Amino acid sequence: MPDHEEHRGDVLSAASLLTLPTSAHVVAAEEGAGFHGPSLADFFPPAILFDGTIFEFNRIALVRLIAVGLLVLLFWLAARRTTLVPSRGQSLGEMAIDFVRTGIAEESLGRELGRRYTPVLVVIFFGVLAMNITGIIPFLNIAGSSVIGVPLIFALIAYVTFIYAGVKAMGGGHFMKSQLFPPGVPWPIYLILTPIEFLSTFIIRPATLTVRLLANMLSGHLLLVLTFSATNYLFFEAAGAMAPLGALTFAAGFAFTLFEIFVAALQAYVFTVLTTVYIQLSVESH
Predict the structure, then answer these.
(1) pLDDT of 176-190, one tens digit each?
(2) Membrane-spanning regions, if any (predicted)?
(3) 241 — phi, psi (to 5°)?
(4) CB-based burial, 158-197: b 16+ in 10 Å, e otherwise
(5) pTM for this model (two decimals)
(6) Beta bridge partners of 47
(7) For the chain, what is the radius of gyration of the CA atoms?
(8) What distances in angstroms separate CA 50 from CA 24, 47, 54, 58, 63, one per listed residue?
(9) Dist CA 173 CA 39 (whole Å)
C-alpha cells in the first residue's frame, strides 16, 4: 500500500502559481519529488461530501454551483428593477440577451422562430460560457465543463430542443420522414441512406457537441496547469541556472490564459450557433 500511494502521488500534478492546489498537489509538493506535470487525476478530485455515493460532491461540483450562482445573480441584478429608461446594469443585461437573439437566433431562424427559441439559446450560451470561464478565474481554476457531465447535459438540451422544434413544426411522423428519408432519392438507396441519416442526425450530432466542448476545456486546463506548474518548479525548486526559464513558462502561461478566455467564449458561441442550425434543419424539409 505505501508503494501504491507513492506511485499515485507521483502522477498527480504539482501546485502551480495561479492554480488552487488540490490535496494531491499539496502531498506531491511536500514530498519534494520534483516537477509533476498535469494528469487526468486533476479532473477527479477527492470528495468533499457524500464520498462513495451517487451524490458525491467534489471541487468541480462546487465550481459549477458557484458559476450557476454568479450567473443567476448577475441576471437578477440586471432585471430586478426594469424601467423604460434602463439603468447601466439593465442595459448590459439587455445587450447580452439581444446579442443571442439578433446575432444568433434571428440570424438563422428568422424573427418569429428566433424569438421563440431565444430563451433556451440564452440559457445555452451563457450557461456554457459561465462553465467555461471558471477555468481562468483565480481560486476556481478549472472549467465546470472539463468533465463530461456538463457538456452532455447541454448537448441533451440542444438535442431535445431540436426534436421538439421539428415535431412542433411538422408533426412527429412528417418530422421523422423528413430527417430519415430525404426526397428525390431512388427507394433502394434508402436502405443505405436512412441508417446513415439516423446516425448523423440522432447520434452523431449530440455526441459531437459533447466531445467538442469537453475536449477544448480539458486540454485548456492541462495547458494552464503545465505552464504554471513548470513556472513554480523553475522558480522555487530547480537549480539556479534553470530558474530564469521560469519567466518563459510564466509568459507562456499568461498567453495561454488569454487564449483560454477566447476559447471559452468561442466554444459557447459555436455550441449555440450549432444548436440554432440544428433547429433550423429540423423545421425545414430537406
Answers:
(1) 888 888 888 888 888
(2) 60-79, 120-140, 146-167, 187-207, 213-236, 248-281
(3) -65, -25
(4) bbebbbebbbebbeeeebbebbbeeeeeeeeeeeeeeeeb
(5) 0.83
(6) 58
(7) 23
(8) 19, 7, 8, 9, 17
(9) 48
- CA dist 164 to 194, 195, 264, Å? 21, 21, 28
Is a pLDDT exceeding 50 seen at residue 1? no
d(CA 267, CA 270): 5
Beta carbons within 8 Å of 242's beta carbon, 6+ residues apart = 234
**Alpha-carbon gap, residue 36 to 232, rounded angstroms:** 10
Q: Which three cell numbers stand for residue 102?
A: 439578433
- Tell me the three state secondary structure of residue 138: coil
pLDDT tens digits, one per residue of 108-143: 888 889 999 999 999 999 999 999 999 999 888 899
- In the predicted structure, residue 35 carries a pLDDT above the cut 80: no
Helices (H), ranges, 186-244? 190-198, 205-236
Tell me the CA distances in angstroms from 200 to 204, 207, 218, one per residue in order: 5, 10, 25
- Cα angle value 134/151/197 (rounded, 5°): 150
Rounded to whole angstroms, the Cα distance separating 32 from 10 reads 10
List the one residue out of 201, 181, 199 whose CA is nearest residue 190: 181
